[in-house]
Amino acid sequence: MNWEALGALGETIGGLIVIATVVYLSRQIRESNKHAKAEAERDVQSHWNGVIDALLRDTAVRAVVRKGGDSFEALSGDEKTAFQLYLAQVLNHLEMVLRMERDGLLVTVPPE
Prior knowledge:
Elements: H1 3-57, H2 59-70, H3 77-102
């Protein structure tokens, strides 16, 4: 075997190693993206559970939200503030979901 044949064999082996490395890295990136999306979905769900938890734990918050849903004008000044802050929390959550969906971190499923 001469040096040219040995060099050609080395280049072929090197090319195969590069291809194998690219395939391996692409699979690793896909797997990492799956984990990142799952973590993002868990974070969104956890945040939403926190919003709902405020209603479950605090009867005063629940009463303000119910009363504000019926008539914002019927709320006192402090109740209006509490109602607006609760709505801001809900809207911030929904905005976060939309932004994450736009960026490809979440996939929302349309209702059937």
